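Thread: zinc ion complex, take 2
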Amino acid sequence: MAEITCARCGRRAEPLDSPPLVGARGQVVQQQICPACWQEWVEQSKNIINHYGIEVADPRQRQQLYAVMAEFLSIKF
Ligand SMILES: [Zn+2]
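Output below.
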């Protein structure tokens, strides 16, 4: 795949090898977010999940996490 320009840090980079999430969100992230920024989100999300006690198996709480993710990564789903 061609290089992408990261929506968060503005750097050009090789995209993630595969979409990091299922469905359309994964496509958006793969096409707009560089691996380094994605890794930052993965680390950050662990803190958020722990801090707020988010239950990712709960669809409603997962939606809330996606909203925080979109803000963190400067993308829209
Ligand atoms: Zn980036």
